[in-house]
Amino acid sequence: MMNARERMLGRLRAAAPAPSPDSAVAALDLRIAAHYDGPRPGAAALVDELENALRASRADVWRATASEWPAQVAARLAQHGAKRLLLDPANKEGAALAGALPSEVEALPFNGPLETWKSELFGTVDAGFTVARSGIAATGTLILEPDAGTPRTVSLVPPLHIALVYADKLHATLHDAARGERWRDGMPANLVLVSGPSKTSDIQQTLAFGAHGPRWMWVVIVTGEQS
Amino acid sequence: MTAQPMHFVAPEDFHQRARAALNDPKLRASFRGAMDFLQTKRSSQFPDALELEHLRDLGEAIRQHALANLPQLLVQLEDKLTAAGVHVHWAETGDEANEIILRIAQQRGARTVIKGKSMASEEIELNHYLGERGIECIESDMGEYIVQMAGEKPSHIVMPAIHKTREEIGVLFEQHIPGTAYSDDVDTLIQTGRRALRTAFAEADIGLSGVNFAAADTGTLWLVENEGNGRLSTTVPDVHIAIMGMEKVVAKLEHIVPLASLLTRSATGQPITTYFNLISSPRRAGELDGPREVHLVLLDNGRTQAYADEQLRATLQCIRCGACMNHCPVYGRIGGHAYGTTYPGPIGKIISPHLLGLEATADLATASSLCGACGEVCPVRIPIPALLVRLRTEANRNPNEQVAHPLKGQGAKFSRGDKLVWRFWSGAFSHPSIYKMFRWAATRFRALTPSEQLGWTQHRTPLKPAPRSLADLMQDRNQPE
Fold first, then answer.
1. Looking at the domain assignment, is residue B194 inside a domain?
2. What is the pTM of this model?
3. Range of the domain at B458
4. ipTM of the complex
5. What is chain B's alpha carbon radius of gyration, rounded to the nearest angstrom?
6. Beta-carbon contacts of residue B87 (< 8 Å; ≥ 6 apart)
7. Interface test with A, best of B99, B274, B281, B408 (most A CBs within 10 A)
8. Which pLDDT tens digit goes with each residue over B410-422?
9. CA distances from A144 to A74, A107, A178, A189 (A)
10. Which one of A147, B12, B52, B258 is CB 3.0 to 4.6 Å from B46, fit for a cystine?
11. Which of helix, strand or coil describes residue B390?
12. In what order do the strands lie in the sheet with B112-115?
């Protein structure tokens, strides 16, 4: 007796044309590459583009040097009234931020598997801090690769998401990012592209923020020289 | 949340509901506003017409390549995902898909399922099925949450609650969410929805989502959204079940880049949505969140019928952006509920016959002036008008006629009388002598034409032949004095 899988595949195979030769895939890949071909903005223009696009999506974005940003983020957090901030003290950015925090803001590492402290995470954490793997200038997008130190929910559950991206890690387009980072060679369990705070226009096409994800998103673009 | 009981409608009653919708000024105004908004948003995303046409060519080529290799790509996707620890299931029908999901839920002793947006789950009426078996499904997309609360179905595939005004939503929330005062401020309403669903995310046993694209080469599910509810549904519960129409796989992850751009720009006029959520495996060793168990249900439910026919296969190129409905003069006037199908508008007219059969859906293909707007905006160039004509032909074909790929419900609108009239018509027009006789008779006996002329006289004055035919008049004029 055949199962559903065999019956579905059988019907497809009976109707499908002969499999495309490899040359057809190569031709398609070339057409895609050609579509995205063209002059790429220089390093400074990439930062401008990213900043503008993120701002258009209502993220709060600014530039800072590696030595400046921890104190700036810390001051803003205090002003925002955040009490508990999720960060990874094991990475250098997390450690730098933890060191700069005023006493009223608590630095909180991701304390064990989610299921052991879910309600605490949902109920008591005000902000989450992540370092983006890279960014996409054209659409104002940060590419996050959650890991053991900074799991997926850090950029998702707290109402404020703070993300750091290095200016020298910017791609012009999503196409460049996927190609340049060789996504085809293997993907992490979860890769997340974030372009601003959570939003919806499901009620009468009126834009509202903080639908289910973070209501606020701060992005620090870390530049090499004095900003 | 307490919701109204689900109100089911049948596509067979299309004409009745369409008339009711046309006479509902509030619904008309709300759809007109929404359609104008979405059309403007879309066109603002494509300032360069040439780039748009190139990208549409590319989108079409990518989808056609994927469909041409569909059986191999599905097997490759299954292999990749299985190796990564994802369970892949195949469902021939909606019932089978429901049973698979129920079995997973029962094995886990699950009581609640939190849902990200999934039109495939609407198609199989999963909420109803699980609900009858004691498992509650909670829709978490704001639009879906609202229509679920109202006991309705989505009226648009991208914006489910497009037919509802904020005042109506204010009343719904006041009635159904305990401790909520009436408000028609959109921001307040969204924050109320957010608060109400927060616990549901944290407590649900299973998260269920749709899939926008799947890549066979890396074994990746690509989910597109703005709210974050999709990410929460696929991240917080210990089990994630994704359900996907079997046509959505493409050969390579890199092929999704142009498709995703076409999708967000065509659907809501956004260069990109807030989140692209790329899932390639369950929680890995050392990770502290993410589901421990991930399932993918591949759904046929009539798609292989469309696939079997070379012309109708183009239906499966669809990436579910909704641009065709946003630009359809019929959809814009009657709204989504009139269709009585999960997918309304032009795409609904061409996909529903495969899901439900032509008996129930034959009236949909004729509810079109064939103006071609849908085909012009389709980001993957589905020739929707040509497919509508084809489906009309299939609905009127003799049910006993043997064809290579018969459709479910072939000949649902077949009538011997109609066939006879058309045969006479084509005979008269291809034989001048018969036509002349017909002309002679029609002009001489014009007084005998009936004043009741079926559908024609419902809204129009009766047709009556002129006393003299054009050919006669021309002959007179050319006659030398």
1. no
2. 0.94
3. 433-477
4. 0.97
5. 26
6. B293, B294, B295, B296
7. B274
8. 999 999 998 899 8
9. 22, 21, 13, 12
10. B52
11. helix
12. B87-91, B293-299, B239-245, B206-209, B112-115, B136-139
